[in-house]
User: Fold this.
Amino acid sequence: MDPTISQRFAEGWKRYFPGSELPIAYWYSDSVDPATQAPHATGHRCIICDLARVRRGDVIAFDKTAVACGGGKRYLGFSSELHPRFEHFLSCGIPGKLEGERYKKSPRLVREMMKEQAAFEAPGRYIIFAPWDLLRGPDQPEVVVFFATCDVLAGLFTLANYDRVDPHGVIAPMGSGCSSIVQHPRRELASDEPRAVLGMFDVSARPCVAGSELTFAVPWPLFTRMVANMDESFLITPSWTKVRDRISRHLECELR
Assistant:
């Protein structure tokens, strides 16, 4: 990772989003430090809950054996399989056999939706998640993920749209929490104009984050543009100063 980008972001984040939680980042690799490798999964556990450790300061590398959820395996690129009755699981269920999550009205809608969400193959054996302040020169982040509250999201959203003609620099596709931070933003990496992904609307994953938080996943090429634009954007205006000061006051209240 270019140390200039790291330094510029750290300085800008402190100046314009004072006290706000730093993002995490991830990339794929075929080799990892054994000390960072997540253990084999047992039982069912949402990977979004596991990322709480990354947010607290741990680097964690997951391979397919460390991801307990079938959806998590798929949306991280470790499997193309779906539950054999997935269309019923995501919708109305099967009376007496399978409880449905009721996120879609009918199995038919689920089948049609999944045609647009083809699985991808992970480009490495491991996906490595790291806190921003633990990234090092050899690391090559693909996507930067913010866990953010409304005022911070407003700033990130506006910055992501700052140098675009169209008003669609941020998308919010329906999907699991892990798809909103991995599958969808990685798909944007293939675009000449990658978009950020607003996410964590997944009701099943919501208990793993604070009630006031959503995620904002930024493909690396867009992230570098956002960093470069910080000091000439709305962030230097009196309008943002009012929001910035509220961010600071909110943090002070939380610390009391």
Summary: The beta strands are 24-29, 60-62, 126-131, 143-148, 170-171, 196-199, 214-219. The mean pLDDT is 93. The chain has one domain: 3-80+119-255. Residues 3-80+119-255 form one domain.
